[in-house]
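User: Quick sanity check before I run a bigger batch. Here is a single chain. Can you write out its predicted 3D structure?
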Amino acid sequence: MTRYADHDMTEEELRHLEDEGADAERRETRPPSSLPWPLYRLAIEHSHETFLAVFDGPVPKPAAPEPVPAPEAPPIPDLSATPAGEPAAETAGEPGVGGNPEAERIPDPTAVPEPTLEAARPDAPEAGPSTLGVGTYVLVSTRYGRDLCRVMGLIRSPGYVSPEEIARIERVATPADLERKTQNAEKERQAFKVCQDRIAARHLPMKLVSAHYLLEEPKVLFFFTADSRVDFRELVKDLVSVFKMRIELRQIGVRDEARVTGGCGVCGRVLCCHGVTDKLVPVSIKMAKDQNLSLNSMKISGPCGRLLCCLAYEFGFYREARRSIPPEGARFQWEGVVFRVTEINVPAGRVRISGEDGRVLVVDASRFSQVEGRWALKSE
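Assistant: Done. Predicted structure follows.
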């Protein structure tokens, strides 16, 4: 059993932070030569899951904005009517005209407004008549059923994605769909309270997370968490007698619960599982070790009690970079002296080595090469 530091935990003690299958090797698939366009990222609002989709139907034209009446110019005072013996009234024009340096400029209703910084931003989203706007609600067949999803934006670099993972948008939501969505929100709050009372009455070891009404199917979804399998057959009978429709109870994990409820991470941003991640990729202790992170459960685990999702973001970079860098403890000979690798800084591309003659050097990782299975350090 290896303990890495006094305040750290052993690798065996941190196993409870991993997910099932976290130690399995992830397989990356190459993207196809061509993907459908435009490609959208959609979000299921009740579970905050995101996925990619395409839309072949016509895009509704946005409603034309109502014309804004031009502001009326203030009346210009008649200076010829100034009584004798009184100073002339100050004219409102360019600063300094009429003896008043702070006189305001009269707005010209025919003037063209100057471009703002927001409109001139190069990374502003492209708005076109042939693409769906951000925030548009669409109807999609999800894994829970046909339901409304929200468009998060266009995807120009999808990365490694398979065509089978791309869904198809059926149509854009109508005003009637949005009205029904608002009505279902109130019904979901009532259903959540009813199901919570039934769970307490039957003393079931489960925690209710959320309730959701599907838009075009007479079905209510209830999401819950539990430490083990729960026999909820009697609970389903109680709920069917109340709602008179199909009931579906889904047991989810603690990471899925965090994705539904949301929150703030240790970085100060919204939880990745709630607002960023498409899929909850299994995270292992090996990812934290390869990034030289402290094996302290308080530092590498999130509010859900599992390893941070962001540990998987840079794991591929570290894995590829370490292939061209000798591991810690590797020995090689340079300038007639045997050196040993004591520390590796992958992001900076630096390697600290110590020689038998007492020298401690920090060299670039690019100077290392492998010759016949042995590490060698090239001269500058």
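The helical segments are 117-120, 175-202, 233-243, 254-261, 272-275, 285-290, 297-300, 315-322.

User: Great, the batch can go ahead then.
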